[in-house]
TrEMBL record:
Ligand binding (ATP): 386-388, 410-415, 500, 515, 526
Protein name listed in UniProt: Acetyl-coenzyme A synthetase
Family: Belongs to the ATP-dependent AMP-binding enzyme family.
Molecular function GO labels: acetate-CoA ligase activity
Underlying gene: acsA_2
Keywords on record: Acetylation, ATP-binding, Ligase, Magnesium, Metal-binding, Nucleotide-binding
Catalytic activity: acetate + ATP + CoA = acetyl-CoA + AMP + diphosphate
Cofactors required: Mg(2+)
SUPFAM superfamilies per record: Acetyl-CoA synthetase-like (SSF56801)
InterPro entries xref list: Ac_CoA_lig, ACAS_N, AMP-bd_C, AMP-bd_C_sf, AMP-binding_CS, AMP-dep_synth/lig_dom, ANL_N_sf
EC nos: 6.2.1.1
Length: 648
């Protein structure tokens, strides 16, 4: 709302910022009036090209074909841009600071050291038959080798598919098979909050059903026991010890794939979001520099996991392309205690700190003491990502963590967008707590009235679409271009549909309201309701299941499952526990069902469609405002669910 509190840009921040208020205005205008000229300049500034492009941009947003091409004809290498080109000027400067799960364990790598590791791993991969265009799966803890693995792929032109280390063996298997990876890079175990996760064991289970994976490269992280398949498995440290440090970067076309990253949608299995080389790198580097106002020599820390897009763009590619110092954290916010984030900030003198609202809310619960026990005087900029941040959490972050000194950049974007689309710039944008504020350069968002399909002018609320491409936009769903078209370009023809709803106030500020499709956002992690339902119905006692989200104090959304059992099956607490366990095993611990309500029947339309709108209301305990129920086939079903709702 425009009448909400405004935090003006602090004058010290504005004075030295890359972009101040006037520059934002004029540059934004230029970026939408002359996109080709604007993006050519940015591509020149942020990336070193082996060969310049022939055409800046070419695209169609449908209705028939959808294609998006940036910097066509250009040649470059991402690892060269993140490493080699910095060696003369900052070879001995730190590239990655690694903070282990255990506070006494840390390590850092200079650009020169990182370069050498990446070259060696590039050669190891080549020696195992990996060629340009081949897919490599990375299932790793948060250790520098995860970044080394990504960059080694980029160096030799292989396409990486990073799978979050918290995913189950089945999820890993599905992702390996979908993108036909032939090599897997993993570790013996990962370590988080003092607990081991058996990555190699999970990998073994997954690989039992992936006969085409011929190499499993294993990093020794904990030294824990692992099973060994002599034909397939290879210790990372042994292979690296013999590898040469000479590995020429492969010249890639701007539109050659860089990576695939799986993300949940409203239907079916997770889809492989495909990003390409040139446009993605330009956008990653530029957004990292401007959104965080990164200044040379600063220490930058993004707390995400490299298994998510935030880790790809804002731990690895953006910061390293800019020659920044990027901190990688293996642990969790509350181990050994709730002060850990701020202890790490002091220990490594972090200037820019980027985390998720769910972490802020959890720490807020622990009170101000763990924060105030630390100095945090190095902090200059704070950021959030992953879900809408409620104004209370925003203010706590701003006042308690940042001592009312540091601008908070609330960055709205998605796996599909590659980088920030709507975000404040610290030196340019007055802040309104809870608003992601204004579009980044070259980004033209719009709101569509969901029922009319027409664009909304001025202030209003609707479906958030983007009306033209930006360089970091995904290019396709790996192996299923039609799904790409159907998911993002069918609902509102001519536009990219984000799946989110948003409000726009009279100042043109965007207030993201959350997903308006069947995607849940649990602690900043995306989960499709369809995925969870498919897992539930695998159980022989389950006839039908419908999953919705409900407001959760810390996670943002919790998972609420309505389950109909098979005739004659008695619904018991033991069965509930089995079902919770089943979903965790099928998908991973991030998919922990919070509430199960037994449903003798589900509310359906006469044509048999489940009316999720009603289920969401019951789960949120908003039963006095169910809306139109006239299309229900059997209204008594709803009354029964209300009487037995589990979240009162
Ligand atoms: C980067 C990332 C994308 C979904 C997105 C939206 C939600 C992300 C947000 C936000 C409100 C923000 N989201 N950032 N909502 N304000 N600043 O999170 O990618 O995992 O693909 O999730 O997350 O709902 O559509 P991804």
């Amino acid at each position: 709302m425009s009448e909400s509190k405004i935090h003006e840009v602090p004058s010290d921040i504005a004075a030295r910022a890359h972009i101040d208020h006037d520059q934002y205005q004029s540059l934004y205008q230029r970026s939408v009036e002359d996109p080709e000229g604007f993006w050519a300049e940015q591509a020149d500034r942020f990336v070193t090209w082996f060969k310049k492009w022939d055409k800046v941009m070419d695209y169609s947003y449908g209705p028939d074909d959808v294609f998006i091409r940036w910097f066509d004809g250009g040649k470059l290498n991402v690892a060269y841009n993140c490493l080699d080109r910095h060696l003369d000027t900052r070879g001995d400067q730190i590239a990655i600071v690694w903070e282990g799960d255990d506070p006494s364990v840390d390590r850092s790598l200079t650009y020169r050291e990182l370069h050498a590791e990446v070259c060696k791993l590039g050669n190891v991969l080549k020696s195992r038959g990996v060629k340009k265009g081949d897919r490599v799966c990375i299932y790793m803890p948060m250790v520098p080798e995860a970044a080394v693995a990504m960059l080694a792929c980029a160096r030799i032109g292989a396409v990486h598919s990073v799978v979050f280390g918290g995913f189950s063996p089945d999820s890993l298997r599905d992702r390996i098979l979908d993108s036909d990876c032939r090599v897997l890079i993993t570790a013996d175990e990962s370590l988080r909050g003092g607990r081991q996760v058996p990555l190699k064991k999970n990998a073994d289970q997954a690989l039992a059903e992936c006969p085409d994976v011929s190499t499993c490269l294993v990093i020794q992280r904990t030294g824990g026991e692992v099973a060994w398949n002599g034909e397939r498995d290879l210790w990372y440290h042994e292979a690296m010890a013999e590898a040469s440090v000479d590995c020429e970067p492969e010249p890639m076309d701007a539109e050659d794939p860089l990576f695939i990253l799986y993300t949940s949608g409203s239907t079916g299995k997770p889809k492989g979001v495909l990003h390409t080389t040139g446009g993605y790198l330009v956008f990653a580097a530029m957004t990292h520099l401007y959104t965080f106002d990164y200044q040379d020599g600063e220490m930058y820390w993004c707390t995400a996991d490299v298994g998510w897009v935030t880790g790809h763009t804002y731990i690895v590619y953006g910061p390293l392309a800019n020659g920044a110092k990027t901190l990688m954290f293996e642990g969790v916010p509350n181990y050994p205690d709730n002060s850990r984030f701020w202890q790490v900030v002091d220990k490594h003198q972090v200037n820019i700190f980027y985390t998720a609202p769910t972490a802020i809310r959890a720490l807020m619960r622990a009170g101000t003491d763990p924060v105030k026990a630390t100095s945090r005087s190095s902090l200059r900029i704070l950021g959030t990502v992953g879900e809408p941040i409620n104004p209370e959490a925003w203010e706590w972050y701003y006042q308690v963590v940042g001592d009312s000194r540091c601008p908070v950049v609330d960055t709205w974007w998605q796996t599909e967008t590659g980088g920030h689309l709507i975000t404040p710039l610290p030196g340019a944008t007055p802040l309104k707590p809870g608003s992601a504020t204004r579009p980044f350069f070259g980004v033209v968002p719009a709101l569509v009235d969901a029922s009319e399909g027409t664009l909304i002018d001025g202030a209003g609320e609707g479906a958030l679409v983007i009306t033209r491409p930006w360089p970091g936009q995904m290019r396709t769903v790996h192996g299923d271009h039609q799904r790409f078209i159907d998911t993002y370009f069918k609902q509102y023809p001519g536009y990219y549909f984000s799946g989110d709803g948003s409000r726009r106030d009279a100042d043109g500020y965007y207030w993201i309201t959350g997903r308006i499709d069947d995607v849940l956002n649990v602690s900043g992690h995306r989960l499709g309701t369809a995925e969870i339902e498919s897992a539930l119905v695998l159980h022989e006692a389950v006839a039908e299941a419908a999953v919705v989200g409900y407001p959760h104090d810390i996670k943002g959304q919790g998972i609420y499952a309505y389950v109909t059992t098979m005739a004659g099956v008695e619904p018991t607490d033991a069965l509930k526990q089995e079902l919770v366990k089943l979903v965790r095993t099928e998908i991973g611990p991030i998919a922990t069902v919070d509430i199960i309500q037994w449903a003798p029947g589900l509310p359906k339309t006469r044509s048999g469609k489940i009316m999720r709108r009603i289920l969401r209301k019951i789960a949120a305990n908003e039963v006095s405002a169910l809306g139109d129920t006239s299309t229900l086939a059997d209204p008594t079903v709803v009354e029964d669910l209300i009487d037995h709702r589990a979240n009162q």
